[in-house]
Amino acid sequence: MRAIALIPVALTLTLAGCSPATTPPVSRDAATQLRHQTESVRHDLEQIPLPSKSRYLAVHSLTIWENPYLTIQGSMVTLHVTVADANTSTLGVGGMLRPVGARRQDLNVRTSDLPAAINAIPQNAWPYGRVVAVEEAHDAPASARPELRRNMEAAIKTLSDLGVIVYEWQDNGPAVH
Questions:
Q1: Residue 30 — φ and ψ, nearest 5°?
Q2: Could you tell me the pTM of the whole model?
Q3: Which DSSP letter does residue 135 get?
Q4: What are phi and psi of 83, to 5 degrees?
Q5: CB 53 within 8 A of CB 143
Q6: What is the torsional sign of CA 71, 56, 125, 97?
Q7: Cβ–Cβ < 8 Å for 87, 94
Q8: CB 43 within 8 A of CB 130
């Protein structure tokens, strides 16, 4: 069900993710609605087990990271999801007929739409449990660094509010915890 829901959300978020966002003042009703939405998403995500540190701490390259991860940019977030292989056979895994890249989806999302995007990720795309790697965009100019850092902090806060463990990734590998 969640896998089917990912496609319309992906299209909507991709189209909406590229437009500049202006944030109107938040009213009390809007804040209450946002809190309820966050609690609803958090409840849905609780179906995904807590992460297995022994599995995800052993990964030292995002090219082999199997869980969802985020690349934080100045005005948006890119969500990278690798959907689990539907074929349970070990024959040809990762080969020319079953490439990992064919199961990968990259979605550009506004930070405000991150809870809906995270909730739309199919449960089988979380092999390490409820953990997301987060990295800053590598090609951002120095003048964009403050905005990028604010967006990074907002994304980390959102993920934490949703009960998702954040694994901060640096240019040279995972951050020391």
A1: -65, -40
A2: 0.70
A3: E
A4: -75, 145
A5: no
A6: positive
A7: no
A8: no
Half-sphere exposure of 153 (CA within 13 A, CB side): 6
* φ/ψ bin of 168: left (φ > 0), alpha (ψ from -120 to 50), beta (otherwise): beta
End-to-end CA distance of the chain: 35
Beta-carbon count within 10 A of 56 CB:
20
Pairing outcome for strands 77-82 and 173-174: unpaired
Integer Cα distance of 122 and 14 in angstroms: 18
Helix (H, G, I), strand (E, B) or coil at 166: strand
CA nearest neighbour of 111 among 136, 137, 79, 142: 79
How many C-beta atoms lie closer than 10 Å to residue 78's C-beta? 16
The C-alpha atoms of residue 100 and residue 71 are separated, in whole angstroms, by: 19
Q: Please answer whether residues 66 and 82 qualify as being in contact, where contact means their C-beta atoms are separated by less than 8 angstroms.
A: yes
Residue type present at position 38: T
Question: How many residues comprise the chain?
Answer: 177
* 87-118 per-position pLDDT tens digit: 666 665 555 665 555 567 889 999 889 999 99
Using 50 as the pLDDT threshold, list the residues of the chain that sit under it: 1, 3-23, 176-177
